[in-house]
Amino acid sequence: MAADFSRVRVLIVDDNGYMLTILRTILHGFGIKQIFESKDPADAFDLVRSDSVDIIITDYQMEILDGLDFVRLVRTADDSPNPLVPIIMLSAYSEKSKVMLARDAGVTEFCCKPVTAKEMFSKIASVINEPRPFIRNKNYFGPDRRRANPDSGTYKGPERRQARQKVGAESKASDEEVQVDEA
Fold it and tell me: Which helix (H) or strand (E) holds 11?
């Protein structure tokens, strides 16, 4: 069954015009009609505040404000209208340390360049079909970084970190889940 992405609104943030063209072509091939583009993360954040977007695709390394700073701005700025928006980060740098920095900034998915249509489709389908709960604590706000099923772990003892706690619920767990209703 083919996915219908015709109503998905995507923002691409990349300071490389050639990469914007490649991504736009790939997204059009998926049937995505509403694509916003920005070469400047600051302008992109203004766009996020003025227009509703469903998915953000951003480059890791850009001038002045890099992709990590942009992600943190979307996730934690007081005037961010949608801190829960899925964010897919693209990077030519795929070292574990870079991926972990992106994850810890609040990125939903990470995709290595050169990007393929198959990989981009997989990431977009993942953020739409398998949304992860969001976690808020004093040091982090973003999608749950634990991808494994918490019930499948080997350790079941009293020190096991609690998962999926509702925001506002009193708990000994340090992480809290933000419940999101999908329309």
Answer: strand 9-13
What span, in angstroms and rounded, lies between the C-alpha atoms of 169 and 159? Answer: 19
Q: In whole angstroms, what is the distance from residue 39 CA to residue 52 CA? A: 18
Phi-psi region of 55 (alpha: psi -120 to 50; beta: other; left: phi over 0): beta
The residue with tokens 């469903």 is: 54
At position 181, the amino acid (one-letter code) is D
What is the spatial distance between Cα 53 and Cα 36, in angstroms, rounded to a whole number? 9
- Angstrom distance (rounded) from CA 121 to CA 10: 13
- Say which amino acid occupies 173: A
Number of Cβ within a 10 Å radius of residue 105: 24
Q: Does the global pTM surpass 0.85? A: no
Q: Residues near 22 by Cβ (< 8 Å), separated by ≥ 6?
A: 115
pLDDT single digits (tens) 41-99: 999 999 999 999 999 999 999 988 899 999 999 999 999 999 999 999 999 988 999 99
